[in-house]
C-alpha cells in the first residue's frame, strides 16, 4: 500500500483503538516492517504509523457497542400482553433463561429451558 487513502488510515486507526479497548490498555503501535525486514507496507504508511497514526477527530469512525445475540432478539420482539402464550413468549422465556433472569418458582416450580418452551 504505497499511497494509503484517508479511509484506509481511519480503518486501521479504528482497529487499533478497538484492540486497545479490548486489551484494556494502550498497545504499542508497530508496522510489520518494525519486526521483520520488508519493503512493505511502504514508506508513507510506515511514517504514518511512526507518527502515531493521526486522524482528525471528526473523521474517526464511531463503533456501536457490541450486543449479544440475545440482545438483538429482545429488541426485535413485539410487545406482549398478559396471557400471551405464542412463539414470541417462548422466545422471551428462552432468552430470560439464557440470561439467568427466570426465577425457579416460575411456571409452578418447573426449571429448565425445555419445560419453559412447552
Automatic annotation (TrEMBL):
GO MF annotation terms: N-acetylmuramoyl-L-alanine amidase activity
Gene3D superfamilies: Peptidoglycan recognition protein-like
A GO BP annotation: peptidoglycan catabolic process
Name this protein carries in UniProt: Uncharacterized protein
Species for this entry: Nonomuraea turkmeniaca
Amino acid at each position: 500500500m504505497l499511497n494509503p487513502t484517508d479511509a484506509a488510515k481511519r480503518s486501521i486507526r479504528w482497529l487499533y483503538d478497538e484492540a486497545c479497548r479490548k486489551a484494556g490498555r494502550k498497545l504499542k503501535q508497530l508496522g510489520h516492517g518494525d519486526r521483520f525486514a520488508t519493503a512493505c507496507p511502504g514508506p508513507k504508511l510506515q511514517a504514518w504509523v511512526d507518527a502515531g497514526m493521526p486522524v482528525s477527530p471528526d473523521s474517526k469512525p464511531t463503533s456501536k457497542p457490541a450486543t449479544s445475540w440475545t440482545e438483538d432478539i429482545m429488541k426485535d420482539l413485539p410487545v406482549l400482553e398478559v396471557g400471551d402464550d405464542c412463539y414470541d413468549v417462548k422466545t422471551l422465556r428462552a432468552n430470560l433463561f439464557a440470561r439467568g433472569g427466570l426465577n425457579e418458582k416460575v411456571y409452578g416450580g418447573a426449571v429448565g429451558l425445555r419445560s419453559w418452551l412447552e
